[in-house]
Structure formats: structure tokens, C-alpha cells
Amino acid sequence: MTFRGSCDGEIGRKILFAKLSTMDGTTTAEQDADNVIRILVATDNHLGYGEKDAVRGEDSFTAFEEILELAVSEDVDMILLGGDLFHDAVPSQNTLHKCIELLRRYTFGDRPVSLEILSDQGQCFHNAVNQSVNYEDPNLNIAIPVFSIHGNHDDPSGFGRLSSLDLLSTSGLVNYFGRWTDLTQVEISPVLMRKGVSQLALYGLSHIHDGRLARLIKDFKVKFNCPETVANDADGNESKEEEDWFHLLVVHQNRADRGPKNYLPEDLLPSFLHLVIWGHEHDCRIEPEENAKKRFYVSQPGSSVPTSLSEGEAKKKHVGLLEIYKGKFKLKPLPLETVRPFVFESVVLNDHAEELGLAEGDASTKVFKYAKERVEAMIERAAAQHTGHPKQPTLPLIRLRLLYTDESCMFNAIRFGETFSTRVANVQDVVQFSKVVKRTKTEAVNLDKEALRRALEADNATRVEELVDRYFEEAKSNKPLKLFHSKALAEMTYRLLEQRDADAAENIVKFYKEKAVDHLLEAMPNDENIEDELLSFRARHKHGDLLKMLDAQGSKVKKEEHSISELVGSAANVPIVPATGRGAARGRGTARTRAASTAATRGKAQLNVTVSSTRTSGRQQTLLSSVMGSRNTASYVISDDSD
């Protein structure tokens, strides 16, 4: 099999676009019901959110019941959940009872399941009693199987490191997959399933703290196992041919950039994927968006119940009907009609200061009157969101955010909300005041161009860190450094660029600051002598000594981490095994596997992609490195610097 990520030239591009095309160009005969995998996709149900709220307590359960009803009416083959089924890691008895009741009511029945599982079920499904998918359990009658990963709200915790999904898995209600068991390395093995001519490789990445996941990727500790088939050519020799596997990943991580280690960049995911279902983000962006670099698509269904009164949560809530035919797919958004109406509005009061006359008289009273008029208009807009569904709540959620600079504009928000006590669902927080911080321009720092020119002309300045050191040495007569040594800044540059230590700047600045504060506290100088004392600090503490002290602190931590990591063993690849059990389309063929891996050289941080399947020779793809194996090994490089 040839990886799409390794196809070169025009032929490779044609294959790539063909694999990622939607199903619009396929004939009705081809899209026979026996060959199309139909999946209802939802994420972030947050069952139990606000369950003690007399007004909003049933919202999460109402929306989840509608999702299950849609699964039945759309006659889907399975339901796929992207994490955060529960709002709390330890859901209440009331929440568990309602969840179990709904799952039994809508997913149990005599309807045959037409999905045939090809992978090793004992490794795929966590805490399943019979080490198999629930619809192959002879003691259960499952009509619509539910597959789910865990999110950050329902992740494993407490004694035994069990998730609430483990309870549902043991009881046979949910097929819990994509769970990590070893946080020193993460191996993602797919659930392989087939319906007619369509074959699906379903990968799950349950929530891992973003900072930890960033370190795992940087240290080459994330690996994908993917299927590969070896066929015999005319001469009887083994030759690899790519099957029509549809690669679907469901993940629960930050998607929005919240800092270098606080999100999972899309570009770090392998390009052999066709579609990524992204959980955790609550704003609905369910229409598939193509990643321009990796050429897969991303769908973000969002939450089914608003858990915060933010602008993103005010978007219309949807789930998706995903249809897969061979390597093609179509995702149809299905609007949820039982979600409580929600209108969000943000107003900058300074933009209306002249209109409201805030410069004169009682500004608070004027803003109160203005806010009341805006809320009245928002309630009218919320009425337009009523769908007519008998279970949809009528009282809307209203959030008016007032951005202010002068506190004289503020009023009692709780008392304001009480005036709408019978007309809105969130009486206590209808209005939110948020202060706009005025940022003044600091004095511009002029670059010493002459010092820069001399630094660039220096014979021994061939590296970036040497240029930094040389520049500050040349410029110190005009604008000397008050705290840092020039060589400390050069070292910071070296660690950032050469060692790719993203924390280098923060660590060095923080350490210098701590040591300078300790020196000042010891000397206790007068205000006018602080600058002189800082010069004394620089003279007393050489840059080399400070960096050695900083590295000594870091080496202690690394030594402790290394001693722990030595106790952890390696995980095995996931084989494909014959399908067993009951169900309409099971028992077709067998599958065996063997896996191989290529040696990896440390370049950039990377995800490993191991290929394993029936009568196959394995191969390994790695993320963020230039891994080259034997002739039969295809490598896939994913860079964390997105170059």
C-alpha cells in the first residue's frame, strides 16, 4: 500500500483529491445502503450540567435524548461521541440514572447491526466484559452501538483510574475506545470495521493535557497504527496495494491557539487521515473545513448544551450525519431543535458615550436604562429561535456584555436581572461588566544601527547567538543592559533556536528576576540607589554561574522523571483478527497482522505512524523527523514549526 502522504507528482495529487472528494459524484447504485456506513456524530453532551438548577437542570438530558431520537429516525449504523459525555468526572446518581435510561431506551433492540469488526476487540475496547464490541455480546440486544472516547470532564480519575465511561462500557451500553493507558507514550490503534465494500479505520485520541501531549509529540512518543494489505502480483511476489480504508480520527483537545503548549495544531496530525471529528471546542463549526497543508477535513460539531454564556456557545447547535462510501464521505448537519434559545451581545459603552450623554449626570442610571432596552430587544430575538418542538424550553438565555472604562457606568447586575425574573432562564447573570484595559504606548526602543552593522561585520559572528552577544557588547556604551548579561541573551537565543527549548526564555528571565529580587532584598537599597544595586548584582553574579545554577535545578527534575520512565515498558501493535459474534454482515474473511517499525532519528518532534494488517509487512511513519527505513518503508513527516 502506498501512503497518500508519500505520493509525488501529478498522479499523487490526483489520487489525493479523489480520496478526499465527497460522495456527490457517486451513483445511487454505488451508494447502496449495504455499502454506506452511516454515523451520527456528536460531541460535548455534558450530561448533568446545572442539574440542580430548577430552570435549566434538564437541558443537557433533553438535547441528548433528541440526539438519540435522530439516530433512530436516520437509521444510522452507529453513534460516535467525541468526549465529555458527562459534565463531571464523577457524575451524580441522578445523571447516571438518566443516561443509562436513555441509552437503553434508544440503542437497545432487535435490529441487526451491519458493521463487522476486523481488529482485535480485546485491545480496542476498554473494560468490555467479553473483550468485544457490545452488539456481539450474546446477552445484549443492541440495535445502535455507541462508540465514545473520553474528554477532559469525564476522564479517568480517583482510585483505580476509572472513567464514568468505564462504567458504561462494563454494563454494555457504550463501546469505550481511544483510551490511553500509558502516559509515557501514546499508541493509537484503530477500530477496523467493514460494511459491504466500505471499510473504516476509526482512531480515537481521548483527552490528554495539552502540555503533556506537546511533550509527548516533541519526544516522539505518539504513534499511529494503520492498516495495510499485501497482495500477490502476476509473478506471485508480494506487492502492496492501498485498500479503500477511510481513516477517521476523533479527538478531544484544544483546537484554538491558546499558547504554544495549550492546543493541538492541526498540522501535527498525519496526512493519511480523511476526516477529523474535533471535540472539546463548544462553538459549532460542523461543516467540514479542509486543512490546506495536510489535505484532510476537520469537523467541529460543538456542544449540545451551552455550559458558558459566551459568544461561541450562542451559535446554532448541530450534530452531524456522516455517510462513508469507500474513501469518500458526506457530512450533513442536523440542527438540534430542543436547545434552549440563547442570544449573546457585546457592547462597548465608549462607542455610545456621546449618544447616552455619559459625560454628564448619573452615568449609571443612563447605562441601566440603555441595558434594559437592549435586553428587551434580545428577548424578542430569542423568540425567533423557537422551533416549535414540544420539548424545547421557552425561557431564553440572555447575555449582554458591557465593556466599560469608567466604573461610574456600572450598576447592580443582580438587581437588574431580577427585573426579568419571569422572562429569562439566567436571572443572576443577564448582564456582565468587563473592563477595557487602556494600553498606553511605551517609549519606542531605537535600534543601534551602528552597533548592529559592526556585529554583522565581525569575522567570528557566524551564528545567531553570536550576533546577539556581539550586538549588545557593541551597543552597551549607548544603551547598556541593566539586569541581563549579553551572554545570557545569547544563550537564550541558542536554546530557543538550536535546542528548540520553547521554555528557555521564560526560564532564564524568571531565574534572573528571582536572583535579582533576592539580591535587592538582601541589600535593601533606597529607591534612588536601586539601579546602582542592579549593577552591583551583575558584577557579583557572572552569567556562567547563574546559568549553571539554573541548569542544576532543571537536571534534578529531569533525573527524577528519567528514573520513573525507566519503569515503563513498551506497548505492542494492534493486530487485525477474524470477526466473530452475531450481526448481519459479520464472518467475512479473516485478518492477521504483523507489525514492524523503522528506526527514528531525532530531528523535529513527531507522531509515529505504524502500519499493520492482514498478511502485511508493517511500516512506520513518524511525525516531525526525517525517518527513513528500508525500501518498503514509507515515512511521513509532520513538523511542529509548520514550515
Automatic annotation (TrEMBL):
<dbReference type="Pfam" id="PF04152">
    <property type="entry name" value="Mre11_DNA_bind"/>
</dbReference>
<dbReference type="Pfam" id="PF00149">
    <property type="entry name" value="Metallophos"/>
</dbReference>
<dbReference type="GO" id="GO:0006303">
    <property type="term" value="P:double-strand break repair via nonhomologous end joining"/>
</dbReference>
<dbReference type="GO" id="GO:0035861">
    <property type="term" value="C:site of double-strand break"/>
</dbReference>
<keyword id="KW-0540">Nuclease</keyword>
<dbReference type="InterPro" id="IPR007281">
    <property type="entry name" value="Mre11_DNA-bd"/>
</dbReference>
<keyword id="KW-0158">Chromosome</keyword>
<dbReference type="GO" id="GO:0007095">
    <property type="term" value="P:mitotic G2 DNA damage checkpoint signaling"/>
</dbReference>
<keyword id="KW-0539">Nucleus</keyword>
<dbReference type="InterPro" id="IPR041796">
    <property type="entry name" value="Mre11_N"/>
</dbReference>
<dbReference type="GO" id="GO:0042138">
    <property type="term" value="P:meiotic DNA double-strand break formation"/>
</dbReference>
<keyword id="KW-0378">Hydrolase</keyword>
<keyword id="KW-0234">DNA repair</keyword>
<dbReference type="GO" id="GO:0030145">
    <property type="term" value="F:manganese ion binding"/>
</dbReference>
<dbReference type="GO" id="GO:0000723">
    <property type="term" value="P:telomere maintenance"/>
</dbReference>
<dbReference type="InterPro" id="IPR029052">
    <property type="entry name" value="Metallo-depent_PP-like"/>
</dbReference>
<comment type="function">
    <text>Core component of the MRN complex, which plays a central role in double-strand break (DSB) repair, DNA recombination, maintenance of telomere integrity and meiosis. The MRN complex is involved in the repair of DNA double-strand breaks (DSBs) via homologous recombination (HR), an error-free mechanism which primarily occurs during S and G2 phases. The complex (1) mediates the end resection of damaged DNA, which generates proper single-stranded DNA, a key initial steps in HR, and is (2) required for the recruitment of other repair factors and efficient activation of ATM and ATR upon DNA damage.</text>
</comment>
<keyword id="KW-0269">Exonuclease</keyword>
<dbReference type="GO" id="GO:0030870">
    <property type="term" value="C:Mre11 complex"/>
</dbReference>
<dbReference type="GO" id="GO:0000724">
    <property type="term" value="P:double-strand break repair via homologous recombination"/>
</dbReference>
<keyword id="KW-0227">DNA damage</keyword>
<dbReference type="GO" id="GO:0000014">
    <property type="term" value="F:single-stranded DNA endodeoxyribonuclease activity"/>
</dbReference>
<dbReference type="InterPro" id="IPR003701">
    <property type="entry name" value="Mre11"/>
</dbReference>
<feature type="active site" description="Proton donor">
    <location>
        <position position="153"/>
    </location>
</feature>
<dbReference type="GO" id="GO:0097552">
    <property type="term" value="P:mitochondrial double-strand break repair via homologous recombination"/>
</dbReference>
<keyword id="KW-0255">Endonuclease</keyword>
<protein>
    <recommendedName>
        <fullName>Double-strand break repair protein</fullName>
    </recommendedName>
</protein>
<dbReference type="InterPro" id="IPR004843">
    <property type="entry name" value="Calcineurin-like_PHP"/>
</dbReference>
<dbReference type="InterPro" id="IPR038487">
    <property type="entry name" value="Mre11_capping_dom"/>
</dbReference>
<keyword id="KW-0469">Meiosis</keyword>
<keyword id="KW-0479">Metal-binding</keyword>
<dbReference type="GO" id="GO:0008296">
    <property type="term" value="F:3'-5'-DNA exonuclease activity"/>
</dbReference>
<dbReference type="GO" id="GO:0031573">
    <property type="term" value="P:mitotic intra-S DNA damage checkpoint signaling"/>
</dbReference>
<feature type="domain" description="Mre11 DNA-binding">
    <location>
        <begin position="329"/>
        <end position="496"/>
    </location>
</feature>
<keyword id="KW-0464">Manganese</keyword>
<comment type="similarity">
    <text>Belongs to the MRE11/RAD32 family.</text>
</comment>
